[in-house]
Design goal:
alpha+beta; 18% helix; 2 domains; single chain; two-stranded antiparallel sheet; 167 residues; five-stranded antiparallel β-sheet
């Protein structure tokens, strides 16, 4: 079974602005990751990352929008990543309010990091749980295990449901 793809669910104006922004740099090998990190002012990061539906890791400056990093496409994972010497990932999250990926995207993120020659901690160091409220339709971050909408205080579902139904 293939990993689910997450489509962009963020503000339309950010998607529109991302159309003119350069996409993230594809990193598919240890040499490419080493070269990319060497070109960064702070090679530790953190950086914006996405994993395309092709499984390729893309990296960009942390101030970059995930939708720009992904070139506007759907992703298998997205968030932020920081490195230590030797291509070792020391922090990695699924924090992307544009794609709101489920924590279940970790296997796709891990595989992309491994293809790029990066060792990783075996899971998200900062997992983020996103849910769409079935009452008001807003997306909330679940904090400290409280599945309650921050906008209308309705209970949030236990399963990931951020992508709205196709119209």
């Amino acid at each position: 079974m293939s990993a689910p793809a997450y489509r962009y669910v963020g503000p339309p104006d950010i998607r529109a602005a991302a159309r003119t922004a350069p996409p993230g740099t594809p990193v598919g090998s240890a040499a490419e990751l080493t070269d990319w990190l060497a070109q960064q002012p702070d090679p530790a990061g953190p950086f914006t990352y996405t994993v395309g539906t092709d499984g390729v890791l893309r990296l960009a400056d942390r101030r970059s929008e995930h939708v720009a990093c992904a070139g506007g496409a759907a992703v298998l994972g997205a968030g932020e990543v920081a490195f230590a010497a030797g291509r070792r990932v020391v922090e990695v999250s699924n924090l992307s309010t544009g794609y709101c990926p489920d924590t279940a995207c970790w296997p796709a993120v891990a595989a992309a990091l491994e293809r790029a020659g990066a060792s990783h901690p075996g899971g998200f160091t900062h997992p983020v749980v996103f849910r769409r409220c079935v009452e008001c339709g807003e997306v909330s971050l679940v904090r400290e295990g409280f599945f309650v909408c921050v906008f209308c205080e309705a209970d949030l579902p236990g399963h990931w449901n951020v992508t709205p139904p196709q119209l």
